[in-house]
Automatic annotation (TrEMBL):
Residues 644-682 have a biased composition (Low complexity). This is DUF5682 family protein. PANTHER family: OUTER MEMBRANE LOLAB LIPOPROTEIN INSERTION APPARATUS, PTHR30634:SF14. Residues 131-162 have a biased composition (Basic and acidic residues). Residues 118-180, 644-697 are annotated as: Disordered. InterPro entries: DUF5682, LolB.
Length: 896
């Protein structure tokens, strides 16, 4: 084969090594070619601004996958990534050059032009200009990887904040608008219907099997590149630039850089680039013509650094244009010294055993035999993922797809997170974040995990503040979730996952300050000044307390006071109150002084008390539903605000405070309270069993007065009247007789059926309590009232009432609905019918909904289990039979 056929001119260079990005076969072939040619310099497709970062790749602290990040200095949100894995040909070439002391240069179009062109082109950049950003963009409708052209880079365009702005394959079209995938064209010419399978059979798998590895004693390491260059040349002759308007500009810059390198190092120069560009680099053009193409390009100031990357973000399903389907598998092919199938299935067996699957070495042996047999039958040089997946499903998974899904997530794709050295260029905010992460022992990880925090511990408190500050800055490293272990306010649960694009968010947040604390403080003050709604300011105050931002609170408090004084909408006030009250309570566990917030919250609550009754008059159905939500939110806020407040006594683990916890005492209204409006129905009051407790009890009493006024005023929609009655009942301000009286009035014949159905929905609907069905199960008098009212609804109104009732009762649990149906079927019990005699034996009396009496023989059979659960001493079976009555009574009392 002549020198020209290998991609190098007769003088011995340059050596044009066309590759497909992120391919282990291409990476291994590049290393073999470099060993054979020993070039004086290595040129790599990538942003030239990164030349000064190349030495960092040789440090011990650099562990791929990593990415080059370039962003506009004045607008970090406009950024682009160039990801590299250990099996990327560019990374292998870079490491080889560093190990051999050979200079490395990046030769692609500078990021200063790429980002400027993206901003200038606007919408056009999202289609025709995507190749500068994503490089190996997909070239077919199914998102196949056309990695023979373009840099391995993906851009964060405009204000994308780390996410791509183009759809896969939008720009990979020929001049007629048809996408051109060079790998697909070559695969079809070879008789394959799957381009990925053809590429793996020809390049990736053949390069990973023992004797077929490149670099053997008799192998010509340049031969594969010559064959690929010839194929790409034929494609370029047919399709030209395939409709990629910016390819000529990029290739002109590459030719100029190659010309400069040849003048400096001679012809012994190796170029590692996408195979699609090799024909253009071999084309003979003048320097003047190339410079003419580059003249007048827009330019911006950029900054470049290394950032960690993940296998998940290398995957095609993440939306990355140069994505591959199986980064974990490709990494295994590249790193396995021999017998990749056996080693892979050993990894699979280890993973399944960790997940408690019964997998043995015999399974591995049989799976290897099956995979290799399938590869032979299908004519493949090496068992691929298709054969391996079939073997695992048949041998290790017993035909189930569950192991395959686990293997795909954990091994085929993987959750590997790269690392970069500490001395890599970074904005001050990034360095402060890294210091905080080390101090708090909170290491970023690609694998999603949950973190339980105990805010009473100093380290956990610091972690909570850091995560809340990052959330305020728009860096969502962690997402708060509901804690499973405790309902106390001293617990927090976070779901953490570090995404590579968060590096862009950190750089973008650097405009607010040089540390996480100062940046979050400045951002909070700015948001407080610009907030338009009262609820936004109260939510911001809550976040400031969570994040521990004492310097931002005065600004937020001034904004809160100003907007609270000007906002007269009761709905806005009620919407803002819960977040403000939660902020007041945070002082108990976080050591913050929330006294000023408490005064504002009390004032806000009083304004809600005054304005709520008039605001509830004359509402339609939608307005009543919206006001019901405000009613529930205010009730929770008052219950929380009225709890004894002590900043020095945090909630204990055994006594967590909850907004839904009913008060232990109630206070009757004072004599100075005005009586309900004329024509209203007064709600019976429950006598107070404990003396009032100062301001806290007074707040509860004033709220109870508001609820009583709502529950008895006819002009208030039935939905709100029923909800107010239910809240009074739950809060101990209304007894069962009073609730029965209010229900009787609401369901009287003079009340419109739709209004009565609304009352039932408010009283028995899920709302905040969610136990309306259980209330009917245990109080047959209320159930009998509803049954009697429903049977008397006229036929003409029944169709209007039915949807309201159906919406109410479908919210109940199936068991509750079944019990209610059984109670209705059996009719009212003797107690509700007025025929009950004196109860001489409570155990033998009929239990509502559960039959006429207790079957003691059946009850005795479950006594051992009940004793075990309740901690009551065990006895012999004979003793249980003889003492059934006493045992049943004891257990009934224990459970009650």
């Amino acid at each position: 084969m002549s020198t020209h056929d290998t991609g190098a001119p007769p003088g011995g260079g340059p050596f044009l090594l066309g590759v497909r990005h992120h391919g282990p076969g291409s990476a291994r072939a590049v290393r073999a070619a470099l060993e054979q040619c020993a070039p004086a310099a290595v040129l790599i497709e990538g942003p030239p601004e990164a030349d000064g970062l190349v030495p960092l790749a040789a440090q011990d602290g650099m562990r791929p996958p990593v990415a080059l990040l370039a962003h506009v200095q004045d607008d970090p949100g406009r950024a682009a990534f160039w990801p590299l894995a250990e099996f990327s040909p560019e990374w292998v070439a870079m490491r080889w050059a560093l190990e051999h002391g050979v200079p490395v240069r990046f030769i692609d179009l500078p990021a200063a032009h790429t980002l400027a062109m993206t901003d200038k082109a606007g919408g056009e950049s999202e289609q025709d200009g995507e190749d500068e950003r994503h490089g190996e963009r997909e070239r077919d409708g199914e998102g196949e990887r056309g990695g023979d052209r373009g840099p391995a880079g993906e851009e964060v365009a405009g204000r994308g904040r780390g996410q791509e702005q183009t759809q896969p394959g939008e720009a990979d079209r020929d001049e007629d608008g048809v996408r051109v995938d060079p790998i697909r064209v070559l695969a079809e010419a070879a008789g394959y219907d799957d381009p990925e399978r053809w590429w793996e059979d020809v390049v990736e798998h053949r390069a990973g099997t023992g004797a077929a590895r490149p670099g053997g004693p008799d192998a010509d390491a340049l031969a594969p590149f010559a064959a690929l260059a010839e194929a790409m040349g034929a494609l370029r002759e047919t399709y030209g630039d395939a409709g990629h308007d910016r390819d000529p500009v990029r290739e002109a810059h590459m030719r100029l850089q190659l010309h400069t390198a040849r003048r400096e190092f001679g012809d012994a120069v190796a170029v590692v680039c996408g195979a699609w560009h090799v024909p253009a680099l071999r084309r003979r053009t003048t320097v003047t013509a190339d410079r003419r193409l580059l003249k007048g390009l827009p330019k911006v100031k950029t900054a470049v650094t290394w950032v960690p990357w993940t296998h998940r973000r290398l995957a095609r399903r993440s939306g990355y244009g140069a994505g591959i389907a199986s980064p974990g598998w490709y990494g295994h092919l590249f790193s396995a010294p021999d017998r990749p199938v056996e080693r892979w299935l050993t990894k699979v067996a280890g993973l399944l055993r960790e997940e408690d699957y019964a997998v043995s070495s015999a399974h591995v042996i049989e799976a290897v035999r099956l995979a290799e047999g399938l590869a032979t039958v299908r004519g493949r040089p090496l068992a691929g993922l298709t054969e391996l997946d079939d073997a695992v499903r048949a041998v290790m998974g017993d035909g189930s797809d569950a192991p395959s899904a686990l293997i795909h997530d954990r091994l085929v794709v993987g959750e590997v997170l790269g690392e970069v050295p500490e001395d890599a260029p970074a904005v001050p905010l990034q360095r402060d974040l890294a210091r905080s992460q080390r101090t708090l022992r909170l290491k970023p990880e690609a694998l999603e995990r949950e973190l339980e925090l105990d805010l009473r511990k100093a380290t956990d408190g610091g972690r909570s503040r850091l995560l809340h500050r990052l959330g305020l800055l728009g860096i969502p490293w962690g997402e708060p979730v509901r804690s499973r272990g405790s309902a106390g306010t001293f617990r927090e649960t976070w779901r953490l996952r570090w995404e590579p694009e968060l590096a862009v968010r950190v750089a973008e947040a650097g405009i607010w300050g040089t540390t996480v604390l100062t940046a979050a403080t400045a951002k909070a003050a700015s948001e407080a000044s610009g907030a338009a709604a009262l609820a936004e300011v109260t939510a911001l105050a809550e976040r400031c307390l969570l994040a521990g931002l004492p310097d931002a609170l005065p600004v937020v408090m001034r904004a809160l006071s100003d907007r609270a004084a000007l906002d007269a909408d009761v709905g806005h006030l009620a919407q803002a109150l819960p977040a403000l009250v939660r902020s007041v309570r945070y002082g108990d566990v976080r050591g913050t002084d929330a006294g000023a917030l408490r005064e504002v919250a009390l004032g806000l609550a009083e304004r809600v008390f005054v304005g709520l009754p008039p605001a509830c008059l004359g509402l339609d159905a939608d307005g009543a539903a919206e006001m019901r939500a405000h009613l529930d939110a205010t009730h929770h806020a008052v219950a929380l605000l009225a709890q004894p407040h002590s900043a020095s006594e945090p909630h204990s683990a055994s006594e967590p405070h909850s907004a839904s916890e009913p008060p232990s005492a109630s206070e009757p209204p004072s004599a100075s309270e005005p009586s309900p409006a004329p024509g209203s129905r007064s709600a019976p009051e429950r006598p107070s069993s404990e003396p009032p407790r100062g301001a806290d009890a007074g707040l509860r009493a004033r709220w109870a007065k508001v609820l009583r006024a709502l529950s008895g005023r006819e002009a208030v929609p039935g939905l709100l009247r029923g909800r107010a009655a239910r809240l009074l009942l739950d809060d101990g301000q209304l007894d069962a007789d009073g609730a029965e009286q209010l229900m009787g009035l609401a369901l009287s014949p003079g009340t419109a059926p739709t209004d009565a159905a609304g009352w039932i929905e408010g009283f028995l609907g899920s709302g905040s309590g969610g136990d309306g069905g259980m209330l009917l199960v245990h109080d047959e008098r209320l159930l009998a009232l509803i049954d009697h009212w429903l049977t008397g609804v006229p036929d003409t109104a029944f169709t209007d009432v039915l949807p309201l009732l159906r919406r109410t009762f479908t919210e109940y649990e199936p068991g509750v609905r079944r019990t209610l149906g059984e109670l209705i079927r059996r009719g009212p019990s003797a107690a509700t019918s007025g025929h009950a005699g004196p109860a001489t034996d409570a155990v033998t009396a009929a239990a509502p909904g559960f039959g006429p009496g207790l079957d003691r023989d059946r009850a005795a059979a479950v006594l051992p289990t009940l004793r075990l659960l309740l901690g009551i001493g065990q006895h012999g079976f004979d003793e249980e039979r003889s003492g059934t009555n006493n045992a049943v009574n004891d257990l009934t009392g224990a459970m009650s």
